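Task 17 of the worksheet. Students: predict the tertiary structure of the chain below and write it out as structure tokens. Keep your answer in the requested format; marks are given for formatting as well as content.
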Amino acid sequence: MYRIEVQSLTLSVPREIIEKAERKGVDLESLILEVLIEKLDLNPDDASKIHISRAKKFLDEGKELISKDSVQASEKLYKAAEECVKGLTYYFNIEDVINEGRRRGRWTVSLLEKAVEEISEKLGTWFRRSVGQSKLPPCLGLPRGKTRCHCGGEKSTLRGENGK
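Model answer:
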């Protein structure tokens, strides 16, 4: 078993960058983490552990919020599921997905779906069905209040079997 010590870092980011990231639906924390993983040349095992640690953090935060703010709780639980998929993508070293996420600067719905399909090939169809049943929001990083989805309304394994 490994132990991860959680530390935080405060970073000053110009307002213009934050606003542009919000308009583009970019999660700055996730982007910075992915850039650090790439630039520090972390091995897939370490990158996987980082994402799984974040998944646990979001899961714990989501559980705490369930009785207080269901919208915020669902956002945290969504992030937990997203981080699990990313962690397993690194664990299985699915390089085409990892490289595409780096090239785009973020993990899109279609990229996460590709990861889910490839992980399912390794773990079994139960994984794809489990992710589909979680009925995650249709788009990654869709900022609160943004109503236009870039996935084109396609049927999505991340939205459940019936696309909802």
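Marker's comment: The longest helix spans residues 44-65. The chain has one domain: 25-143.
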